[in-house]
Write a structure and sequence with these properties.
Elements: H1 5-12, H2 15-26, H3 32-45, H4 50-83, H5 91-111, H6 122-128, H7 133-158, H8 162-171, H9 173-202
Helix pairs in contact: 2-3, 2-4, 3-4, 3-7, 3-8, 4-6, 4-7, 5-7, 5-9
Pfam family, one: VTT_dom
Family: Belongs to the DedA family.
Domain VTT: 30-156
């Protein structure tokens, strides 16, 4: 079992969910989905209380995301101007990306939790481009709510079969990525259609 999750829960209980998920979003390569699925199984077994596990997971996730947002916000344009050239990010490119992100990127924050690697970057980037905190929080916290409920709920629902669920998710993870891309594309199209309709009405 990755990171010996069972032993961590035996020693620290709910704190594993909070600290592990918080640190995952900042830097630590922590298996968030595995931990939540196992926590769901423990709630099925009566070892943990399901709602308590969910609350600890939710707060660990949202606090971790908020910290990454604040780091990005603090770094801001001076960081891009100083170091951006080393990763081919110029202020002009960031400005163009900012306009795109303000239109469609909030959806990516929400669904990005289900895409490995993406959920670790969206908070930093939202802060880096100066996305309003209320907007960021609405999508980030809503996505965290759905992400935590989904994995803890699956662990509880499947009980002893939770590892099979994990293997199935890992095996079909590319489908989740494809679905996320499709959903993002649909969001872009819907927004474009709404804006086109408004512009025609105003003529």
């Amino acid at each position: 079992m990755n990171f010996n999750i069972e032993s961590l829960f035996d020693q620290y209980g709910y704190e594993v969910l909070f600290l592990g998920l918080l640190l995952e979003f900042i830097a630590l390569p922590f298996p968030g989905e595995t931990t939540m699925l196992y926590a769901g199984y423990l709630s099925y077994s009566g070892v943990l209380h399901g709602w308590t596990a969910f609350i600890w997971a939710f707060f660990g996730t949202t606090i971790g995301m908020t910290i990454t947002y604040l780091i990005g916000l603090k770094a801001g344009m001076p960081f891009v101007e100083r170091y951006g050239k080393w990763v081919l990010i110029t202020p002009s490119k960031l400005e163009k990306t900012k306009k795109w992100f303000n239109r469609y990127g909030n959806v990516l924050i929400f669904i990005g939790y289900f895409i490995p690697g993406v959920r670790h970057l969206t908070g930093y980037f939202a802060g880096l481009i100066g996305s309003p905190f209320r907007t960021f929080a609405a999508y980030a916290y809503g996505g965290a709510l759905f992400w935590c409920a989904c994995f803890i709920g699956l662990g509880h629902a499947f009980g002893p079969q939770w590892e099979k669920v994990l293997h199935a998710i890992e095996h079909h993870s590319w489908k989740l990525v494809a679905l996320a891309i499709v959903l993002l594309g649909l969001a872009v199209l819907v927004r474009w259609a709404i804006q086109s309709g408004r512009s025609k009405t105003n003529r």
